[in-house]
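Sequence in, structure out. First:
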Amino acid sequence: SIRGVIKRDDSFVIWVDPAIVHAGD
């Protein structure tokens, strides 16, 4: 989806769908 949340992963930021975030890290 176009909407997402910023998730810090090591030293870079990626846009991921909220559903993916809740599914697991």
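Second:
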Amino acid sequence: GDDVKTAKNDDKGRSAKEGGGKEGGATEEAEKAGSVLSAAAAEAGRSSVARVGEAGAARVARAQSKYDTVLAKRIEAEGRIRTVRKEVMATQDADELEDELDAGDDWGVGHKTHLLTDKKSGLDFMTSQRDWLRQVREARTAAGLALTLGLSAPPSLLELPRFESAGCANARTDGGIS
């Protein structure tokens, strides 16, 4: 009696799950995937808990090591940015500067609490370097556009003074185009 009712109820439950067609199967697969992820998260959690609970001296040593590493990398990144940052737009390698700025961002040179080697704000420094990079790229775009427009204009419509100043001269100075 009771075993038959239980079997029928189990069949109804399976039928309800399977009755949804693909959705029922998808739900079951999602549950399996969730279980796998939960197991992985639980294992990662146990590992983290073990690390947090490590002996005091070892934990402090690990923290100091991380601090020293990050500070050294920030100082190194700051130095590389200062090395590749040029004072004249024409000599600025924009891609190289952008790469170094990205590396500086990765290490936190622009963190709001970071002070540079000269004790100035890392955030202000990185903001000014990004502004410089933007200005360089805008100047090069403008100079390139002026050159393109001037070169494509018929001689009768070409404004020579503007072509020389906005195109040729800016391309050589601000634009870094030679």
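Remark: The helical segments are 2-19, 22-52, 56-84, 94-107, 122-152, 160-172.
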